[in-house]
Each structure stands twice: as structure tokens, then as C-alpha cells.
Amino acid sequence: MISDLSQVLRRILEQTSLSSRFPELAEAQISFERPSETFSPGQTTVNLFLYDIREHLELRNNEPTIERRNGQAIIHNPPKRIACSYLVTAWPIGGEELPLQEHRLLSQVLQVFSAYPTIPEIPFLENTRLAGQEPALPMVTAQVDGVQSTAEFWTALGNQLRASITVTVTIAIKELKLSEPEKTPTVITRNLQLEQRISPATGALIPSFFRISGQVTDVEGQPVVEARVTLVEWNLSAQTDTNGYYTMGVISGGAYTLRVEKENQVQEASITVPVEAEARDYNIQLQQ
Asked: pTM for the whole thing?
């Protein structure tokens, strides 16, 4: 992930569209070496030295993410937000007034990086492991709290003090699963039974509730598709499926009227809920 980030920063600095505006930067090579006393590039170079990697506590997210797979939920801890800080230096080779060449290079790098408060997905993150990260990768350039003591920092590198820019990019790194994650059901179900009860207040019978279903066919017994079936007294409607079946409810027991409509044909039938005898369905055959 971090190596991908370094390559992304290289892409930003090597944009061909910038060559006319920043010719010195266009001709410089991009490296990621430790700028110690022995660092001596053979050509003009912009060096990005990764010197600090730490969790960005202000961007920490404690909300887990839930992955749903095959009817089960897998809970993932949120990714860590890791801030990667680079020390950017310029190393001109040849020509006159090397310090001014160094300043021009740093100025051009500063302008390019400052143009991206976040790194765009296209074209910079394509074909890298950083593609698709949410939220977008924030990039902070020349921040105040970069290298706290510049002189001590360069002394630790074993080199002399040099002008530099600090660039910090925060990336998201997902947790490493060392074992199969625990799965939990996504839905908790329970059985609910509706039955006749006696009201303790009045002693009257409380009616049961029912769903009604059936099939609509034509005179030849073929299913009628997309017919509208209406329970008139309850103003409930349903549409038959590809096999002519419909379902509606829930309603209490009683005598009702079913109306079936298909194009210009309308037919009504009287039904009793619950259905009489052993039949379970409320089938209707349309008569021409």
C-alpha cells in the first residue's frame, strides 16, 4: 500500500501536461532515497524521502462495516487511517546558480502538490491498491507541524541542512484477517400464530385473520397473467403472476366479493372467509 502511494506521488509529478509550465520539473528524475551524506544523484533529481508513518488519530473511525454474504453478516473493524509523510528535496546538477535552480524546482513541486487537497481517483490511483478508497486520500503540503526540528533532522540523516517541503498523505489500511471472520445471521425470525381469542372485557369472540390466495384461469383452464383481483369490501388489490396466482390480506373472516379485471373483462365472485370445506384457495375462472 505504501509503495503504491509513492508511485502515485511520482505520477503526479511526472504529468506530461505540466512539462510546458514546469520545464525543470519535467526534466528531473523522481527518487525515494534517504538523503544522507552519501546521497549524490547523477542528474537533476526531486527526492521524496518517506520519513514518518503513523496513525492519523483525528481521522480515526470506530464504526465497523458490515458485509452481507449468503444470508449472513460479517462484521469488519474499520480500516486504520495511516498518515505517510515525505520530505521533498531538490538536487539540481550542472548549470549556474545551483541554489536558484533548487528553489525553482521546489517551487514547482509545491505548486503541483498544493493543487491536490485530495488525490483524484483518475488518473492517479488507477491500477494501484489505493484505487476505490473512501474517503478520498487527503494530501497536506508544507504543513506547519511537519519536521519539528529541521536542523536536528538533517543531523540525524548525516547531512547538512537543506531546504525541503513536507508532504503528508493519509491512506486507509484494512485489518489483516488471520482467521475466518465470525458470521452472524442477518435476520432473526420468530413464529407468529393468529388464532381466535375471547375478549376478557366483553366475552365476545375476537375473529381470526387470514390471507386469501388463488388462481385466475380462463375457460380453457389456462392461467390469466396480470389480471387485477380486488377484494371489494376492503379495497385491497393484487395482480396475478406469470402462473395466474395472486395473494392478498390480512383480513378477518366474513363474506366478501372478489372482482377480477383483465383488459375490458370484469367478473365478480362471492367468497366466504375462511374458505369452506377443505379447499385452501379462492380460484376464479373467467367466463367469456
From this structure: 0.57
